[in-house]
Design a protein that fits this description.
The chain is an all-beta fold. It is 3% helix and 41% strand. It has 1 helix and 21 strands. Strands 1, 4, 6, 8, 9 and 11 form a 6-stranded antiparallel sheet that branches. A 5-stranded mixed sheet has the order 2-3-5-10-7, with no helix packed on it. Strand 17 and strand 18 form a beta hairpin. The protein is elongated. This is CUB domain-containing protein.
Amino acid sequence: MHRKQSLLIAEALVLAVFLGEGACDSICPNGITYITASSGRLKYPTSGNYGANEIKCWKIEVTDTYQGIRFQYNSYDIESCKDCECDSLKVSNTYNDLDQQLGKTCGRSSYNYLYEYLGHWSDGNFQRVQGSIAYIRFVSDDTEHYKGFSLAFTALSDSGGVKNYLNAPEDETITFDTQKFGSQNYPTNSEEEWYLIVPVGRQVQIDFDTFDLEDSKDCRNDYVELREAISEDSDGEFFEGDTGPILTKRLCGKTKPGSIKSKGSIVWVNFKSDSNSTTVYKGFKASFKAGLY
């Protein structure tokens, strides 16, 4: 296998297949590599420097229940020139836009710059695409060649419900549940978010006591989802959950999930119900505490 073949690492199921879809046009004459996953990583090339006169294309597709795709660049080393006419990288939700000038990027940013200077609280190394499909196109010319790029992608969730911030100190268990739990079924068109916080250096352990939601394919109707929360500033005082690493796929139905443990100290839980007026489900009741690694 050629050492410059792209490396695809996915936290969920990844289907990476080379197809000749673009073989007859100038945008992607060498075909497209297809990736289907809710999150994953893409690095090109896997080692060394990229070659001369290359055109590489990828299509990333997430389930259409998500609102978009978020990209985070871990390394970015592409020859820089005016209007990125030499080497370039472009991300778009439209295939036919890939060879257009607008949106092309190039330049060189070291690991230390991306992580220590920009940090996780800056949008400098992030990019978002609306919808469930994103196309990526990399182009090089016949002059200077560098190390290329690596990125991580994550499907974006729909958020906007009432926010709750719950803190579990050492040796304390905190409960949370859907609206009206224990007295009524949960309402239609309901949205609610919880940020579950434990001391730094501990992991969040979540246990569901009761779980009773409407079942549907891909949990499109009513669901609960859990993600790691991401710090949005250098002090760690502001964070968001809808773009964080996915802890579980969407949950629905009547099967109670097993214990869920995070890697970090903050977890985002998102509950959403649709407009089905015949909702006859109780919802969920859960608890969390500070767990040990």
